[in-house]
Each structure stands twice: as C-alpha cells, then as structure tokens.
From TrEMBL:
Function: May play the central regulatory role in sporulation. It may be an element of the effector pathway responsible for the activation of sporulation genes in response to nutritional stress. Spo0A may act in concert with spo0H (a sigma factor) to control the expression of some genes that are critical to the sporulation process.
Domain Response regulatory: 5-118
InterPro entries registered for this protein in UniProt: CheY-like_superfamily, OmpR/PhoB-type_DNA-bd, Sig_transdc_resp-reg_receiver, WalR-like, WH-like_DNA-bd_sf
PANTHER family per the UniProt record, alphabetical: KDP OPERON TRANSCRIPTIONAL REGULATORY PROTEIN KDPE, REGULATOR OF RPOS
GO BP: positive regulation of DNA-templated transcription
Annotated ranges, domain OmpR/PhoB-type: 131-230
Pfam family membership, one: Response_reg
Name the record gives this protein: Stage 0 sporulation protein A homolog
Length: 231
C-alpha cells in the first residue's frame, strides 16, 4: 500500500531535491512545484494529503497560498521557511498553516513532523465515548468530533493548537513543563524547542482568551511551562 501523497512547494532546486530525495527514500509519494501558481494547480489536480510549503516563492508569497488553499481545503500545510521571526510564524499559523519548520532543518526533524501529522490524521475520530466531551467554563472540547467551542461558537484551530489544548485540558490544574509538552505534542525531535512552543501558545491564546494578556484558561509559569486553569 502506497504512503500518502505529499506536495513539495519549493523554488530552491537544492532544497527541493533534498526534500524529494528524503521522501523517496522513505517511500513517500510526492509532487513538486517551484512556484505558487504551480502549487495551487497541483493541489487542485492531485489532492495531496500534506503540503510542504516554502514562503519565499518567486511569483507569490506563501501566506497568500495558504489563504487560497484554505478557501477550499483543510489539507495539512507544513511551512518550511528561512523566516525565523515569531511574527512570521504567527502570520503563517493565523493564515491556516498547521506547522512551521525553520531552515536550515534536519531530514530527521522533517520526517518527525510528517509522522506527527499523519498520526493525527489517522487518529481523527478515534476518541472513546467515556471522555468524549470536556468543558471548562465557556470552553468545550468535543474529542470525538475534534471540535472546540467557546461560548458555543466553534473555533478553528490548527492541529498543533488542538493537540496543545487537549494536552492541557487532560491535565487541568497541573503545571506541564516545556520539555513534557514538546515531547507529548511533537516527539523527541522538538524536545526543548521553547521558542516554537511559545509561538503556538500565543496563537492558541488569541483564539480562546478574551484578553490574551490576562488569560483565564492558560497560565504561563515563566521558565517552567504552562497550566490550564479551572474555570
């Protein structure tokens, strides 16, 4: 049985060849596109299971590509970019990206991100009925449906944001360390990547907190980790 199809969007031929060779070595199927226009055409034509997207393309910005794809598809998008500022990561995540990998990167980390993405896709809808709904104040998580609500309004979370929220929800009142969270959500490849964790927490807070600077749900323990407060 073939592995899922991955669309690689990268204009740098050296980086594109590195990614596609890695995918081929690990028996992934792939399509490659060097421009934004080609990427959109390939996405429509081949319906890939995952998109690996560079932001700095010659004909359009990757953020615009994410927005266009999100008008008709929920396909997981993993950004691979040399842009390393938190604001760049937040812009991509807000536009609809699911994950963000900063260049230069190791092939082991890329493969780990793909495994996490596919594991989430395979696990969707498998939650047991014994704890299928979590409520905390105005926050509700329907594990079986994979949906999150705030005051009965559905929130649109990225897969990483959803995993972070579920991890915190299953440990209400407990302080979870940075190391524990990154291992649980991303695996050992992201162990101690506090900067990336901080970016995802910031985007998650923007969606669930009325005032992110004065959070009701996710409390920061500086230098240690995060805790979900009981409401």
């Amino acid at each position: 049985m073939n592995k899922p199809l991955i669309l690689v969007v990268e204009d740098d031929s050296a980086v594109r060849n590195l990614i596609t060779t890695t995918l081929e070595t690990h028996n992934y199927r792939y399509q490659a596109a060097p421009t934004g226009e080609a990427a959109i055409l390939e996405a429509v034509s081949y319906n890939p299971e995952v998109i690996l997207l560079d932001l700095g393309l010659p004909d359009m910005d990757g953020i615009d590509i994410i927005r266009k794809i999100r008008t008709w598809s929920k396909v997981p998008i993993i950004v691979i970019s040399a842009r390393s500022e938190d604001t760049d990561k937040i812009d991509a995540l807000d536009a609809g990206a699911d994950d963000y990998l900063t260049k230069p990167f190791s092939v082991e980390e890329l493969l780990a991100r793909l495994r996490v993405t596919f594991r989430r896709l395979n696990d969707t809808g498998r939650s047991g009925p014994q704890d299928s709904v979590f409520t905390n104040g105005d926050l509700k998580i329907d594990y079986a449906a994979g949906c999150v609500y705030m005051k009965d309004k559905e929130l649109h979370l990225t897969p990483i944001e959803y995993k972070l929220l579920c991890l915190l929800a299953r440990n209400v009142g407990k302080v979870l360390t940075h190391t524990y969270i990154t291992k649980e959500v991303w695996g050992s490849a992201w162990d101690n990547d506090v900067a990336s964790l901080r970016v995802f927490m910031a985007t998650l807070r923007k969606k669930i907190e009325a005032d992110p600077s004065n959070p009701r749900y996710i409390q920061t323990h500086v230098g240690v980790g995060y805790r979900m407060l009981k409401n």
